[in-house]
Write a structure and sequence with these properties.
11 helices; 408 residues; binds D-malate; 4-stranded antiparallel sheet; 7-stranded mixed sheet; single chain; 35% helix; 2 domains; Aspartate Aminotransferase, domain 2; 15 strands; 14% strand; globular; Aspartate Aminotransferase, domain 1; alpha/beta
Length: 408
């Protein structure tokens, strides 16, 4: 028989969101008349922007013509999309990111895992705790950690707690770490980072030759004009940071699939002979071999995000979800909950009441209010005692969910 990748056997539990669905489905089976409201996984609910739909139908029709048909596209993405991204998301903010440094892909979740392909196995790795579980699980799967411990953490990973005491901002490590995952606006806590604080991380990374993997999938939700949308707004970041961006949450592409990763040409790592190797070249090589690009139709849809109508529609979508977040935060506060996040992110991070565990509160909300959220402990040890609610749902359902929670 074939040998399996035993690293998978180290994984402590199933992936968080399918695990939640399993529990919710089991509950529905036993309570067939219940009316569940899902504020768990951060999946969008509102229709795709019209400009994106129009661009995709036009592209589809082009594909039905002899002249407009396209087969494989460039593995890195079509130049016209990479140019729009560079101009609108970076140059307009003073970040000198060229189209060539942008790699269009089918998702940030995949890219933030696949990036490990070009990084050595012996790097020390730091993650915040709580954290988006993909960063941890993909390191476990590729053999970069030891076994899981009783408390659910993995040997070999460095955990940087984020909690009320440090205002959900990880402290800079006192010793050298090779790779650091940062996500701002943060999933799951909804916390943000200022330019001053992000500069401390960039300086740390440059002083220690570390690499920051910066997940900015939620940047579009930033309302505070002073906060950075990209790590490249910080001097020195082009020498130490890779950034992940997505069209999933801003333009509602969770089911369409389009994202991009920025790898500045100025970032290098070392080989075993201590020679400098350019990371851009390795990623370009990796993508050319393992990826055939995002479909032409979808890339045209993503391009439309940068049209004037597209920008307005995306702004309205973000405004809609952020209004949901505001309603949720206010109602929960009025009901006596301690609530974080939700001001510059679509996630509300609440303290679980009455000494319950996060999973106790999950069951309690499911049974008493038929509302689904995400237990904080699913994001890591330090998430215990917290609970995440997502602002992605219709206004009606969000209001209904809050009323149900207040009533119990
Ligand atoms: C979440 O709920 O944390 C997100 O849906 C994760 C993701 O975007 O993959």
């Amino acid at each position: 028989m074939v040998q399996v990748n035993e690293n998978y056997l180290k994984l402590k539990a199933g992936y968080l969101f399918p695990e939640i669905s399993k529990r919710v489905n089991a509950y529905i089976q036993n309570n067939s008349s219940c009316d569940i409201i899902k504020l768990g996984i951060g999946d969008v609910t509102e229709p795709l922007p019209k400009s994106c739909r129009d661009a995709m139908s036009k592209a589809l029709n082009e594909m039905g013509t002899k002249d407009g048909f396209r087969g494989y596209g460039p593995e890195q993405g079509y130049p016209w999309l990479r140019e729009k991204i560079s101009d609108n998301d970076f140059i307009s903010r003073g970040c000198q990111i060229t189209p060539e440094e942008i790699f269009v892909s089918d998702g940030s979740k995949c890219d933030s895992s696949n990036i490990l392909d070009i990084l050595g196995n012996d790097n020390s790795i730091a993650v915040t705790d709580p954290v988006y579980p993909v960063y941890v699980d993909s390191n476990v799967m590729t053999g970069r950690t030891g076994e899981s411990l009783q408390d659910g953490t993995y040997q070999g990973l460095i955990y940087l707690p984020i909690n009320e005491e440090n205002n959900f901002l990880p402290e800079i490590p006192t010793s050298k770490v090779d790779i650091i995952y940062l996500c701002f606006p943060n999933n799951p806590t909804g916390a943000t980072i200022t330019k001053v604080d992000l500069k401390k991380w960039v300086d740390y990374a440059n002083q220690n030759n570390s690499l920051i993997l910066f997940d900015a999938a939620y940047e579009a939700f930033i309302q505070d004009k002073e906060l950075p949308h990209s790590i490249y707004e910080i001097d020195g970041a082009k020498d130490c940071a890779i950034e992940f961006r997505s069209f999933s949450k801003n333009a509602g592409f969770t089911g369409v699939r389009c994202a991009y990763t920025v790898i500045p040409k100025s970032i290098s790592g070392l080989n075993s002979k201590s020679e400098e190797i350019n990371l851009w070249s390795l990623w370009n090589r990796r993508q050319s071999t393992k990826f055939n690009g995002v479909s032409y139709i979808v890339q045209r849809g993503a391009e439309a995000v940068y049209s004037s109508d597209g920008k307005k529609e995306v702004k309205d979508l973000i405004g809609f979800y952020m209004e949901n977040a505001k309603i949720m935060k206010n109602k929960l506060k009025t009901a006596g909950f301690t609530v974080y996040g939700g001001d510059n992110a679509p996630y509300i991070w609440i303290k679980v009441p009455d000494q319950m565990t996060s999973w106790d509160f999950f069951d309690y909300l499911l049974e008493k209010a038929n509302v689904v959220g995400t237990p904080g402990s699913g994001f890591g040890l330090s998430g215990e005692g917290y609970f995440r609610l997502s602002a992605f749902n219709s206004r009606e359902k969000v209001i209904d969910a809050m009323e149900r929670i207040i009533r119990i």
